[in-house]
Amino acid sequence: MKQFFLRLMARWKFVALFLANFLAKFGIWGVGAVALLDSSTIPVPMDLILAGYVWADKTHFWLYCLLAAAGSAVGGLLPYGLGRAGGELFLLKRVNRKHYERIRARFERQEFLAMMIPSMLPPPTPWKACVFAAGVFEMRVVPFMLSVFCGRLVRWLVLSALVLKLGPGAVDVVEHHRLALLAIVGGLAVAGFAWWWIQKKRAGKLED
């Protein structure tokens, strides 16, 4: 496993050795620990790391996706908490009022999708900025964590499927076909929203 990461992460040669040793100590829980680190503080090449785990242990790909999604949801609580603790002025210094109000409206209209969709997308999506905004606009903690978990889970299940079919090089495929992935994610989001809307309408009819 260590040699695999060293070879796979050649372009991050300064952190490859550290991560390889770190992951080896945590075993199967390593992917969750690194996802927590990536979401809370230090950005790491999470897609590459997950691809390495999946390729080395193909039968448990779903478990690595679950652990990574859970770690990401927990780690996201740090930037979320900073936003909730008083990040409105900080956010207004970096975006104009019109953009700020547009983001606010998005969270007020459908906060779950407003957080889930960015969580689905690969870099360079400004994910931590979205998490920070979720805190600023006081998204509830449980829906926040659930939306991040679901979004990350979808993203990494799609990546795992590509890795199982194409090998670890699937990470490069994702990087070079972001628009195609965005279309897939967008389709999934629309389908999910349509399902939620239909269920809501049905529940309303039953109450009547």
Descriptors for this entry?
208 residues; mainly alpha; 81% helix
Structure description:
- It is a single chain.
- By secondary structure, the chain is mainly α.
- It has one domain.
- The chain is 81% helix and 0% strand.
- The protein is built from 12 helices and no strands.
- The protein has helices at 2-8, 13-26, 30-40, 46-56, 61-75, 77-84, 88-92, 97-120, 127-136, 141-166, 170-176, 178-207.
- Helix 2 (13-26) packs across helix 3 (30-40).
- It is globular.
- It starts with a helix and ends with a helix.
- 35% of the residues are buried.
- The mean pLDDT is 78.
The whole-angstrom Rg is 18 Å
The end-to-end span amounts to: 59 Å
Major sheet description:
none
Q: How much β-strand is present in the residues? A: under 5%
User: Could you report the average pLDDT, rounded to the nearest whole number?
Assistant: 78
Count of discrete domains: 1
Report helical residue fraction.
Answer: over 70%
Label the overall shape: globular
Write the layout of secondary structure elements.
Blueprint: H1 2-8, H2 13-26, H3 30-40, H4 46-56, H5 61-75, H6 77-84, H7 88-92, H8 97-120, H9 127-136, H10 141-166, H11 170-176, H12 178-207
